[in-house]
Design a protein that fits this description.
This protein is an alpha/beta fold and 328 residues long. 34% of the residues lie in helices and 13% in strands. It has a five-stranded parallel β-sheet with strand order 6-5-7-8-9, with helices on both faces. Strands 1-2-3-4 form a four-stranded parallel β-sheet. The longest helix has 16 residues. The protein is elongated and about 95 Å long.
Length: 328
């Protein structure tokens, strides 16, 4: 079983891999044994062309994508003794060696007949995974030597790469001219409200997630804590990780878990372990807590514990400042 996902200089798209899953299901139902060849750049632990002895196979299937180019032609040379079939492919040039080298081509388009349904459409159902917005900053140089932004971002992104989730990089900065960015707060809130979780080291990443009723796994990127820590406290939001927990090899004392109790007796608590505990909490109990806090925000109520926002005192401050200025 081969495809563009097999080539070192190919690519593995979601559609290609789903098409493969559809063909695998068909072959399993027919009782046919098979191996799948993966690009080492995509699945380092899979079977690669370098591991394959062509003589051990009698048939080759090429799945999805265009049947075109030198890499497909090389398959015909290397597996010349095999029966070769292409399935769910696009035929760009019916007379090219890449196409004519197959004994049968079951095309989805370009073969002269009407187009057929892409194989990915009928692939087996997939497990649900959380959709996670990632809102990070590499700025905030006003914190000087207390900045741990680069280290925090490196730990977070490396850890997120290993989570089974759909990651969506987001930016709180608005831009009316860059199509990749939101142009209004309403546009950003529309995205946030559809997420399962936000991972952020930004104050507004935390606040806007909670405003949308979405739990946030927040990290304060400033050593000793700064505005993210202060805002988490003001919001009454517990899922906060200090920069030191991620950037130091060990934590002093026992770690405090999501429920406020001891998470372990060892002082050596991994950054990954801390993040995973809050991740689990956010996707469980944190959903209801974020929804409660967000509802309070939207109802224009005070944040938990009666902590006001600064605008509540603005009118009085303006009046007092004006009176003081007039009396000078």
């Amino acid at each position: 079983m081969t495809g563009w996902f097999s080539f070192l200089h190919g690519e593995a798209t979601a559609g290609d891999v789903l098409a493969l899953a559809r063909v695998e299901r068909v072959l399993r139902d027919a009782g046919s044994a098979y191996d799948v060849v993966w690009s080492p750049g995509f699945r380092a632990d899979g079977t690669h062309f370098a591991d394959v002895d062509p003589a051990a196979y009698s048939r080759l299937v090429f799945v999805c994508g265009p049947v075109h180019g030198a890499q497909v032609e090389e398959l015909h040379r290397r597996f010349a003794h095999c029966v070769r079939v292409a399935v769910g492919v696009s035929v760009v040039d019916a007379g090219s060696p890449a196409v004519t080298g197959f004994h049968r081509v079951l095309a989805r388009d370009g073969a002269g007949d009407g187009p057929g349904l892409d194989l990915a459409a009928r692939a087996p159902a997939l497990p649900a995974v959380p959709v996670v917005g990632v809102v990070l900053t590499h700025g905030q140089h006003e914190y000087g030597g207390r900045r741990r932004h680069e280290e925090v971002a490196a730990v977070l992104t490396r850890w997120l790469a290993g989570r089974d989730c759909a990651r969506l990089e987001l930016e709180t900065r608005l831009d009316a001219h860059d199509w990749r960015l939101c142009g209004t707060p309403a546009q950003l809130e529309a995205v946030l409200s559809r997420l399962d979780l936000v991972v952020t080291d930004r104050l507004h990443g935390l606040v806007l997630a909670l405003r949308a009723g979405v739990p946030a796994l927040a990290v304060d990127p400033v050593e000793g804590g700064a505005k993210v820590t202060a805002q988490a406290r003001a919001c009454g939001w517990p899922a906060l990780v200090p920069a030191e927990r991620l950037t130091k090899a060990s934590a002093e004392g026992s770690a405090e878990g999501p429920a406020g109790g001891s998470a372990g007796s060892s002082a050596e608590v991994s950054a990954e372990g801390t993040l995973e505990r809050w991740w689990d909490w956010c996707l469980a109990d944190g959903r209801a807590e974020a929804a409660r806090i967000g509802a309070g925000f939207r109802a224009a109520e005070s944040v938990p514990d009666g902590v006001p926002d600064a605008a509540d005192g603005l009118v009085a401050a303006l009046r007092e400042a004006s009176e003081a200025a007039a009396g000078r």
